[in-house]
Amino acid sequence: MNILVSNDDGYLSPGIQVLANALSGLGTVTIVAPDRDRSGASNSLTLTRPLRPRQISERVYAVDGTPSDCVHLAVTGLLPFVPDIVVSGINHGSNLGDDVLYSGTVAAATEGRSLGLPAIAVSSVSFNPKYLASAADLVCSLVRRLKTHPLPPGTLLNVNVPDLPISEIKGIKATRLGRRHPSSQIVRDTDPRGHEILWIGAAGDAADCGEGTDFDAIANGYASVTPVQFDMTCHEMIGPVQDWLKE
Question: Any idea what DSSP says for residue 218?
Fold first, then answer.
């Protein structure tokens, strides 16, 4: 099995190193990841300039682009083979609820899925994780499962794991995405030359976090596995919108 590993924290991130090492027991692992932190890049592709992949070692490439760029290049010609699966992570920090709209970690997996490959995005809920091996072990079990029980086309797995020893994680729950409150207000500051600068505010707290959500699973010590699709059509509204257009 040829496993493509990417992320949005950069190819030097501890999370991607632990993940790649764990997955090497299941197949041949190749890392194609950003050359720096590209958190929050979402599904953006770089179309206004050429990309410059840099081969760091035999199976590690650093790309001066987004997570989606990395996976797109890897699958469409950078590598001399087409990967069998894309695994993105381990992200430092959770990707719960509507975080998936902004997450570069999820975007890398989404790009793989859009190119026809099975895909998993995995995040530790801590920004300074101590137990990355727990998340890596869980992902390995999911990769084994996907080999014998593949998901439908267009579906990827978004995985969030408590930063705990594997023995202290209560289990794994299949969940739906919750939802956050609106983000905090912008943070105003001034640069050394006296010009105003603005920081995007922190993500909002959980709003929809009831039983069955990814927020609820994590809050109760479980890992969450959410099947995600990116058909954003509101199918039940097609008829009502058609009627609205006729009025």
Answer: H
Residue 216 CA: distances (Å) to CA of 81, 105, 157, 202, 222: 40, 21, 17, 20, 9
CA 229/CA 117 separation, integer angstroms: 13
Strand order in the sheet with 223-229: 54-57, 60-63, 28-34, 2-6, 85-92, 119-124, 155-161, 223-229, 172-174
Which CATH fold topology does 2-178+207-246 show? Stationary-phase Survival Protein Sure Homolog; Chain: A, (3.40.1210)
- Please report, for residues 49, 144, 168, 172, the alpha-carbon distance to residue 223 in angstroms, rounded to integers and kept in the order given: 39, 17, 11, 5
The ranges assigned to domains in the chain are: 2-178+207-246
Q: How far is CA 3 from each of CA 10, 118, 127, 143, 144, rounded to the nearest angstrom? A: 17, 10, 25, 10, 12
Let me know if 186 is exposed, middle or buried by CB neighbors in 10 A (0-12, 13-18, 19+).
exposed
- 3-class DSSP state of 215: helix
CB-CB contact of 161 with 135 (8 Å): yes
Sign of CA dihedral 39, 43, 49, 51: positive
| Model pTM score | 0.91
Tell me the DSSP string of 133-163: HHHHHHHHHHHHHHHHSPPPTTEEEEEEE-S
For residue range 71-115, what is the model confidence (pLDDT) as tens digits? 999 999 999 999 999 999 999 999 999 899 999 999 999 999 999
